[in-house]
Each structure stands twice: as C-alpha cells, then as structure tokens.
C-alpha cells in the first residue's frame, strides 16, 4: 500500500469513528421524551398530555416514560391557544394515556405540594383542581393527599 493510500484509509477510518461518536452523543434515550402528538399516535407505558386550556384543548405537551422535576424549560407546541407559551404554571387540563400507572401533576418543582392524580387512562375531569395554572412538575406515580380522578 502506498503512503497516500494508507493516509487516505486512515482519514476515512477517523471520519467514520467521529461520525459514530457524534450520533451516539446526540441520539438521547429512545424510550423517553417530550413533544406534541406522541401520546395520541404511539403506545407508551407512561404517557400524559398536558393542555394549555380546559377541556383538553389548546396547545399541548406530551410526556412519555420520564418524570419531569421542573416544567420551566418546556413550552407548548401544536396549534391552538398557548402555542409557544411555557408549561410551568400554565396548564389547565391533562390526560393520563397510560394503561398501567397513575400520573400526578404537582404544584411545586421536585414533586411536592398540592397535586392532581389521574388514574390510568382517565380523562373524566376537564380541568385541573389543585394545580390549575400552578403546575410545576409531573411524576408517573400516585401522590398522597392529591385530588384523584
């Protein structure tokens, strides 16, 4: 092998390794996330939709397979009222689309304070009670002393 061919072969190997490293660093977990429209079209063990408006309307945020200790970095997306607004202290209704466990919306960051717990696959209340426009975190578990529906 000539020196030029060897050098070119080494460059290609290094470029391929760097590309693999970049993909590995940016891919993130495949089974958890947030967005809009995921819970309606996908089947996840833990999936809840937070809505800007009452009656499950307006812009929304879907959360699946992860707890959210603080809604501060998240914004609503999709069409309707509230699109682009921050989620923290700005939610009016929510749906638990999970068939296995409860989802709880908490008044304070870090899963504390007054709370609303939604039983699995339950969306009978069209408005949050204890956390209406005072929502700071979400966990896929049932809180104690929460309003439950």
List the helices and strands and how they pair.
Elements: H1 3-26, E1 33-35, H2 38-41, E2 47-53, E3 57-64, E4 93-96, E5 103-108, E6 112-118, E7 137-139, E8 147-148
Parallel strand pairs: 6-8
Antiparallel strand pairs: 1-3, 2-3, 2-4, 5-6, 5-7
What does this structure look like?
The strands form 2 sheets. Strands 1-3-2-4 form a 4-stranded antiparallel sheet, with no helix packed on it. It has a 4-stranded mixed sheet with strand order 7-5-6-8, with no helix packed on it. The protein is of the alpha+beta class and 149 residues long. Residues 12-31 have low confidence and may be disordered. The protein contains 2 helices and 8 strands, in the order αβαβββββββ. Helix content is 19%, strand content 27%. Strand 2 (47-53) and strand 3 (57-64) form a beta hairpin. It starts with a helix and ends with a strand. The chain is globular. The protein has helices at 3-26, 38-41; strands at residues 33-35, 47-53, 57-64, 93-96, 103-108, 112-118, 137-139, 147-148. It has one domain: Gamma-B Crystallin, domain 1 (Sandwich).
The CATH C-level class name? Mainly Beta
What distance lies between the first and last C-alpha atoms, to the nearest angstrom?
A: 72 Å
The CATH topology turns out to be Gamma-B Crystallin, domain 1
User: Total helix count?
Assistant: 2
CATH architecture: Sandwich
Strand order of the largest sheet: 1-3-2-4
Unreliably modeled segments: 12-31
**How much is the radius of gyration in Å?**
21 Å
Beta-strand content bin = 25-35%
The helix/strand series, from N terminus to C terminus, equals: HEHEEEEEEE
Count of individual domains: 1
Q: How many strand segments? A: 8
Structural class: alpha+beta
